[in-house]
Amino acid sequence: MSFFSKLRDRLTRSSSKIGSGLEDIVSEAAADEKPASPAPAASQPATEPEARPGVLGRLLGRAPAVAEPRRELDDAMLEELEEMLIQADMGVETALRVTANIAEGRMGRRVSATELKELLADEIARIMTPVAKPLPLYPKRPQVVLVVGVNGSGKTTTIGKLASQFKAAGKKVVIAAGDTFRAAAVEQLQVWGQRAGVPVMTAPEGSDPASLAFDAMTKAEAEGADLLMIDTAGRLQNRQDLMEELAKIVRVIRKKDPSAPHNTLLVLDATTGQNALSQVEIFRKLADVSGLVMTKLDGTARGGVLVALADRFGLPIHAIGVGEQIDDLDAFDARDFARALVGLGD
Ligand SMILES: Nc1nc2c(ncn2[C@@H]2O[C@H](COP(=O)(O)OP(=O)(O)O)[C@@H](O)[C@H]2O)c(=O)[nH]1
Ligand SMILES: [Mg+2]
């Protein structure tokens, strides 16, 4: 199955929310616009012929094609559209601007839900195209990728998936299990590492992640690895500790390579909706975030938040996750995402 089909199938909650939202907006009002009911049947000749399908249609036994309902684009409709996009987690500012762009030059025109979906997908793709950038690969060896984000956002899983994919693409990868606070995180990475054939550097629970990062850097250099991916803890409840921990990791790896880390990925969980926006603000203060990965777009009605993120921060979106398996993570494609989000096909 292509990643697009998977994305479309699994984004069903978001897309059905936006897609059916648009259909409702158009069809409810279209129903209201129908002419008032005709005079009572009693006053009409009983022999009044019914509208008949065309001769060819009757021969083929086909029902006459039902045209898609249309509704005149007016202020009331735009307000409903805005409201629906805000409900879909797109954020107020983004929803207002997208709606204004759709309205421009189209006021008073009668539009169908399919036309609206196409217009909306185009607007979303326009916002997201500039940020759709795969993780940049540099000739620098090892390229150090620091992975940050709150607990449960999907850091460890994302590292496992990325490491497997890079390894499959012929890259030499080393993983540092830098979330030394959770033994489970270390085991989880070891499983991914074994599956992919990627070495995982670990340290005892509770030990200093910075010294682990230093050792991992040494190993990655010695082995001529292309990539070193460093997992971290995400204990936001103690922000000062986390900031110091991340700063220390950066400090020690810079002793080996002053240009490291080359990427700092912030992993965000789509199911947190608008909260993802404040996570970006917080983590930009804690670390030099260079790009985003959004996980758990499967089965959430909050996929619209990715549009708000792109619009607000303009940070590159490297990849999106739609499940727990290796191939459930792929580079972010703006057009595919936009079409899947509004419930349109490829
Ligand atoms: N459905 C789904 N689950 C995911 C995805 N990414 C991660 N998870 C799950 O989310 C949970 C937390 O992930 P984990 O990588 O441990 O998060 P961490 O605390 O940031 O390291 C795990 O159960 C993962 O299997 C995704 O794209 N879709
Ligand atoms: Mg983890």
Automatic annotation (TrEMBL):
Its EC number is 3.6.5.4. GO terms for cellular component: cytoplasm; plasma membrane. One of its GO terms (biological process) is SRP-dependent cotranslational protein targeting to membrane. This is Signal recognition particle receptor FtsY. It is a peripheral membrane protein. The gene is ftsY. Residues 1-12 have a biased composition (Basic and acidic residues). GTP binds at residues 149-156, 231-235, 295-298. It catalyses: GTP + H2O = GDP + phosphate + H(+). Keywords: Cell inner membrane, Cell membrane, Cytoplasm, GTP-binding, Hydrolase, Membrane, Nucleotide-binding, Receptor. Residues 142-343 form the SRP54-type proteins GTP-binding domain. GO terms for molecular function: GTP binding; GTPase activity; signal recognition particle binding.
